[in-house]
Amino acid sequence: MKKTFSYLLLLLTCIVYSQNYMTSLPFIIKKGNSFSYVDKSKNEIYIFIANAKEVKISHYDKKFNLINTLTTSITDDKPDNIVGFTTNDSSINLIWTSKNGKKFTFQNIDFTTKNTLLTSKNLDFNNETVLQTFSNNSNFYCLTVINNSSALRLYCFSNNNELTLKTINTEKIIFNNSSNQSATIYDLFAEEFGSFESSFELQNIDSTFPNSITICSKKRKAYFTDDELVLSFDNSPLSTQLLKINLKDFNFEGIKIAKPKGITTTNTNSFLFENNLYQISVSPNDLSVDIKKLDGSTVKELHANLNNEINFKSSGFNCEWVNPDTEKNIVNTNQFINTLSKYSVGITCYSYKDKNLVSFGGVSRRIQKSNPDPENRGGFYPGISGGAIGGLISETAYLLFSGSTRLYYNYISSRNTISVNSLFSKDFQLQAEKVNTYSSNSIGHYFNGYSNLRLPTFFSNDNKAYVGYYSDESKQYVIMEFKN
After folding, report:
1. C-alpha span between 242 and 327 (Å, rounded)
2. Model-level pTM?
3. Deepest in the core among 25, 115, 366, 482, taking most CB within 10 A?
4. Of 48, 147, 22, which Cα lies nearest the Cα of 461?
5. 196 vs 263, residue with greater confidence
6. CA torsion sign, 333 to 335 to 339 to 341?
7. CA distance linking residue 400 with residue 442, whole number of Å
C-alpha cells in the first residue's frame, strides 16, 4: 500500500510540474552514490547508482530503452565517492576516490564479459590544493593549484589508467584580485566571497544543461570540453579574467575582458557560452548586461536604471522566496534593481529552440526557513555551499571527494532568488516570444514540491534536461525529463 501511494505521489508530482517520467531502477540505498554519463557520439546514457556493497550500471538508448544492465560489488577497500569515468571500446572505467582524495580506484567494467578489473593509484598532492575534477570518454582530469604559487597542475588519467602530469605556469600572466591589485592565480582561488563562495571553490559549468542563477552567481567557474578547459574569474570589479588551456598540447593563454562601461560596482559576474562572454554589473541605481567576443569587442550592450524599465526582457520578474509569506513579489524594474544590488549577481545562457535564452538575476545570503520541512533529510541543504560535479576543496576533500552527488544543483538552498529572462536569436536580436520559465526553473519547483529525494544526478541529451534521484518511499532510482 505504501509503495502504491508513493507511485501515486510521484505521478501527481509529474502532472503538477509537467514533466515526463522516463524510467526507474529498483535498488536499496541507505547511504550511497550516483553518477551519470552521456556518450554524445551515440546518444546513449549510463546511470551508475551504488550502495555500501554494490554498484548498478544501467545503459540506455536516447529514448531510455534499456540496452544493458550490470550489478557488481564495490571494491574491497571501500572507496567513498564516484568522481568520474573514462571509456574504451568495450568497457567503462568508473573512478572512485577516498575522502582525503589521495587514492584513486579505477573499476573497469566490461559489459560483454561481465568482468570487473580493479587498479588504484595514490597521489600525494603535497603542497597543493585540489580544485576540481573533469571527465570525458578518453581522459579523467584532476586540477590542483600549487600553494602560494602561479602554477596549476593537471593530473591526466587516460582510459588505460596511465597518468600524465602537466604543470601550467601562469607567472607571466598578470591577474587582479577583488581589490584590483596584482595577484597570482593562487591568490584568486584563495579569495572568499562571504558565506556564498569559499576559498578554492571552483564551479564546474555544463553549458549543455540549464544552469540555475544560484550556480552561476559563483565568481570562479570552469568550462570543460573534450579539447579545452577554460577557467573564468570575476574577482576583479574591472574585468573578467579567463585562462584557456588546450587539452591536446597544454598550451594556454590569459585573456582579460573589461566589465560593462559606465557603472561603478563590485557586484559583477559573467557566463561563457558559445565563445561569447555574457557579463552583468549591478549597482543600487543601474543594471548593465554586455555580450562580448573573446577578443573584447562588444556584440551588444544593454542597460536599465531606476527610471527606465528593462526593455530587453522576455519574461516577468521571477521570484523564488525562502519564506514567501513574508515577501512581496517584484513587479517593476525599480524594485528589481534595488533588490538585485543587495544580492550576489549571476547570468547564464542556454540554447532554447535554436535561440539563446539569457537569464540574469541574483541570490541572497542564506536565510532560515520560517517553516522548515521536518521530513526533508538534508540532502539538498548542505552545510557547506558547493558546486557542480565536485565543488570546493579546502573544505575541499569533503565536497569534491565525499559530497558531489548531493551538491550538484543546490536548487532548494535557503536563499532567495530573483531573475529575468531575455530571448535572443543567434545573431543577438531580441525576440518577441515570452519565456517566463524554462527547465531550470521547473527543476527548482520540482525539488521544492517533492523534497524528500536523495542522490541527484543531472545531465542533458538531445536538447533535453534530465534529473535522476533516489526515492526512499519507492526504493527506486527515478529518471525524469524536464522539457523547455
Report:
1. 38
2. 0.86
3. 482
4. 22
5. 263
6. positive
7. 26
